[in-house]
Amino acid sequence: MSDRSVFIFSDELLNYRFSNDHPFNQMRLKLALDLLRKFGAMVDSQIVAPRMATDEELHLVHDPNFVNAVKLAGQGKLTEEIAQGYGLGTEDTPIFANMHEASALLVGGTLTAVDYVMNGKADHALHLGGGLHHGFRGKASGFCIYNDSSVAIKYLQEKYHARVLYVDTDAHHGDGVQWSFYDDPNVCTLSIHETGRYLFPGTGNVNERGQGKGYGYSFNIPVDAFTEDDSWIDAYRTSLIEVVEFFKPDVILTQNGVDAHYLDPLTHLSATMKTYREIPKLAHEIAHKYCDGKWIAVGGGGYDIWRVVPRAWSLIWLEMIENSNCYGSLPQEWIDKWKDQAPVELPIEWDDPEDLYPPIPRKPEITEKNAQTVEKALYPIRSNKKQETI
């Protein structure tokens, strides 16, 4: 078992809380960590507390006026009209007390992960509190106030002069990160997500390839609704292997939203735990093959916080520490601790049952369509390869 990984966490991360009935619920962090503890895969020495991001660090990506607006909103000092202009006080991102401090801590957690990996204190770092990929330079969006991944990538560039590959496997397109580096040839973004025809934010089409010097460094794989494991994994594996070989990064940053799962209430995909075993497995392989092991992973979406998120996110950490024994039954102690609080029946095994959902009637059509999407997305890489061999 590897001891070269760190897990970024403190209870203060749970302060990023919009309301009691909002779907974004950071209680999932506690559930995932407790599952790892009960499984015997986490010790206190592996846990590192996040620090608060400074204003200067937030300004690497975010407009100072926006940061100031978030501070005022969290103090109850921002008018509704001004708040709305910054995407604050909406149904998706309601205002809550001390929202700047809670949001800056999430960003600081990702920066903590970056420093541990880039300073050689760890090969891998996992910050499940991060992954807020919809935040824009001057606007909150989609449950995201500050965009920790965008700040972290800019921080990686400024402090460590690194070429960064950002891989986003959330069911929602990683729009905020993509647009932050759309014209930057030293950052490559790969997002695999449900097509925007049916789902927020409606972007992430194959033809979004970057602009200016950054043209050709943005890759999008919008899979069809009801996509299942085999098709999803094939799209992920094929695209990631070809993109990393093309870009040759110094470090990879993976955003690990787990809302492509069949049970997630906000999306229309049909992934199971089979997919969430494969995602970190390939990321781990690639980090060691191309980046001297440098792998920073953050959380993201995931709204079935009882049945899906704890298992799926635990699998990232278990891959990082090379624990291959996560099969069969979940720890009974974990089930007993949380079953009375859970509004649904908790799973009893790491993997999902074969009959989790009824057969998808359009499976062959969906599979073929996704394969064509991957072909279109990777066409520039493959076309260049052909020209090089002529």
UniProtKB/TrEMBL annotation:
<dbReference type="Pfam" id="PF00850">
    <property type="entry name" value="Hist_deacetyl"/>
</dbReference>
<dbReference type="InterPro" id="IPR023801">
    <property type="entry name" value="His_deacetylse_dom"/>
</dbReference>
<protein>
    <recommendedName>
        <fullName>Acetoin utilization protein AcuC</fullName>
    </recommendedName>
</protein>
<dbReference type="InterPro" id="IPR000286">
    <property type="entry name" value="HDACs"/>
</dbReference>
<feature type="domain" description="Histone deacetylase">
    <location>
        <begin position="22"/>
        <end position="317"/>
    </location>
</feature>
<dbReference type="InterPro" id="IPR003085">
    <property type="entry name" value="AcuC"/>
</dbReference>
<dbReference type="InterPro" id="IPR023696">
    <property type="entry name" value="Ureohydrolase_dom_sf"/>
</dbReference>
<comment type="pathway">
    <text>Ketone degradation; acetoin degradation.</text>
</comment>
<dbReference type="InterPro" id="IPR037138">
    <property type="entry name" value="His_deacetylse_dom_sf"/>
</dbReference>
<keyword id="KW-0006">Acetoin catabolism</keyword>
<comment type="similarity">
    <text>Belongs to the histone deacetylase family.</text>
</comment>
